[in-house]
Amino acid sequence: MTLKEFWHRLGSPKWFYQMSGRWQSILAALAVLLIVAGMIWGLAFAPPDYQQGNSFRIIYVHVPAAILAQSVYLALGAAGVLLLVWRMKMAQLVLENLVGFGAWMTALALFTGAVWGKPTWGTWWVFDGRTTSTLLLLFLYFGLYALRRAIPAREAAGRACALLAVVGVINIPVIKYSVEWWTTLHQGATFKLTEAPAMPASMWAPLLVNVLGAYCLFAANVVAKLRTAILRQERGAAWVREWALRESTR
Amino acid sequence: MFAVQFRRDWLSLMRAKDEAINPLVFLFLAATLFAIAFGGEPQRLTGLAPAIIWVLVLLANLLSLEALFRRDFEDGTLEQLVLLAEPPFAAVLGKVAVQWCLSGVAMTVLAPMVALLLNLPVGVLPALMLGLLLGTPALSLIGAVGAALTVGLRGGGVLLALLLLPLYLPVLVFGVSATLDTMAGVGAAAQFYWLAAISAMALTLAPFATTAALRISVEQS
């Protein structure tokens, strides 16, 4: 199957449903495996930090959550472009089903950050560059959710959210740089594409495993939600009825 | 198209002035509330005044944006605008320009009086006004996207605030910090460049998004 063919098929909910059953189990298994391994490795075997002691271990939850919080918003923006330009049916489902996951990840990142900040910085909350932009990300998620709830027509709601997500993605860098205008208390990103991490490998390796696990969890979650949404959306279609009959008589 | 739309919106607003004036009254009223709430200590207000003024400008701008497309939406003008063969880019820009004149420009002109209420030193006024003049176009342009998305909806006002305030943050940050730096005697050129850059970016991108948003809102009604 060529890439172009795959692309066209991805737009078809029926094809996605039939193919994604296997993907879902693989992704879910990978997620469980990676997260369990990463957590045990990070919480029990990684060396304690020379300054922060054991409290640094919360990064094994905090960093994956924060990375996903941003990735999900980017994914929403990408789905928004697909929906606005090509009116791809699947993109609408993605937009409808990713907002909750992204908002929870953002909230988790903020919560774990606060728990870690109390013993380390001596305060639950500081308005520095990175915490503020994460908080604003949460508000952007709320905005998407509220807009979708406010528009009664489903298709129009999808396209309005798509536009808002695209506008949001364009704005995120500006928001990020503007809040970093203030001197920032938060340390830089742990993983950068351009240089090796500052912490030793025994600390960042479990973190990497956890981040990959979180991405798998995210992907498995998306696939599961999309499958449910497809069944609901296509409930009148012949293939869904056949599927339901087959399932119920089995 | 731009000139026609500008003239039409300008005239219709001049004939129903309260719609344009009410947000400005709100600006004064809220500033007065702050001054009263801080009681007999006006010197404490001085350091906070730039932040208070900028936040109130953001909120007053939201209030005037809510009506930007509403009447045209209700009487069907918006539908005709979207149906034109030519994309309504220039018309959208015309409408936003009128809104900016009556909110951004008007608030810039009135800012010295609000600043006096809040005990801001007179020497800082040029920086405050320049910041407002450079920053408010971005507010109106980005705001137009939100106004277009929420035009037909019930409870649009709160929704508009929820959608737009996070996007307004960069303007707020640079606007306040420009005024504060001037107050501290440090140059604030960088912040003014940033405000101008954000407005320029909004000018090039926001009308497209507004046009798309208007299509979505008109199609669903």
Instruction: Outline the low-pLDDT stretches of chain A.
Output: none
Query: Rg of chain A, please?
Result: 20 Å
Overall tally of domains of chain A: 1
List the helices and strands of chain B in order: HHHHHHHHH
Tally the helices of chain A: what do you get? 8
Helical amount among residues of chain B, as a percent range?
over 70%
Mean pLDDT of chain B: 89
Q: What value does the average pLDDT of chain A take?
A: 84
Number of strands of chain B: 0
Helix tally of chain B?
9
Q: How many domains make up the coordinates of chain B? A: 1
The beta-strand count of chain A equals 0
Strand content of chain B: under 5%
Provide a concise account of the structure shown.
The complex is a heterodimer of chains A (250) and B (221). Chain A is mainly alpha-helical.
Commentary on this structure:
The complex is a heterodimer of chains A (250) and B (221). Helix content of chain A is 78%, strand content 0%. Chain A is mainly alpha-helical. Chain A has one domain (25-189, 198-239). In chain A, helix 4 (89-121) runs antiparallel to helix 5 (129-150). By secondary structure, chain B is mostly helical. Chain B has one domain (2-220). Chain B is 84% helix and 0% strand. Chain B is built from 9 helices and no strands. Chain B has helices at 2-15, 17-37, 42-65, 70-74, 77-83, 89-117, 125-149, 156-183, 189-220. The model of chain B has no long low-confidence stretch (mean pLDDT 89). At the A-B interface, helix 5 and helix 6 of A face helix 7, helix 8 and helix 9 of B.
